[in-house]
Amino acid sequence: MSYVNGLFARRLSGAQCAGGMLLAVAAVVFAGDASAEEWGTIKGRFKFGGTAPTAAELKADKDVEVCGKHKLVNEELAVGADGGVANVVVFVRDKDVKVHPDLVATKSEKAVVDNASCRFEPHVLMVQTGQPLVLKNSDSVGHNSNIATLKNPPSNSLIPSGGETTVTFTSEEAIPAQLTCNIHPWMKAWLVVRPNPYGAVSKADGTFEIKNVPAGDIELQIWHEKAGYVGEMTIKGKAEKIAKGRKKIKVAGGDNDLGEMVLDANLFKK
Question: 32: number of CA atoms within 13 Å, CB side?
């Protein structure tokens, strides 16, 4: 009887050992999956390096009774009082990036560009492929919205006062698409068409934030309408060259602050 008990005990011990190994392997796999499911926020601030030029005023020479009431300025380079550079585009360049579950629904949300005060608002907009882009007109005069795309069919919609139209892009654009109004030629804006929500446009103070980016190695691309793809910046006093605006970073879970990135004035003399 003791022999049988001993044999049973040895078999039970072996089974427990095998079970323990399986649990250990499962734990490692689970830990790997958990690590892959980490998400981080990328943020930073663009600052103008030097004395910022004063934005030139634009003259309204069409529909003057309406457009002449607004103070119109050249928006190619917008620098705030504290040196922040607005309208710098930052997006994740990597293909087939996994999208955070909370961001999947953003593709069905409407993106909006308004013809307001005889200018486009906003001046630069990120829009995803498949996302409805509403072009509206809040002015009391008619406008048209001419979108110069390369991979998507061109679009040129006449929008009466109070009207709107919707455009959807099926393909991403390799470069930002210019948006103009042929009726009022001083009006200009840009659309950055990307396949996912991982992009941002810097605010008036130069700050930007891209939330819920998958952890790991990624490549950012940085663009500004006046500078083109930004090829150089200074971070913590050290100049850093980045080919074609491409900057590789490692995203960790939580906040990933790139800090203050100074853009030299010479970048904008094109």
Answer: 5
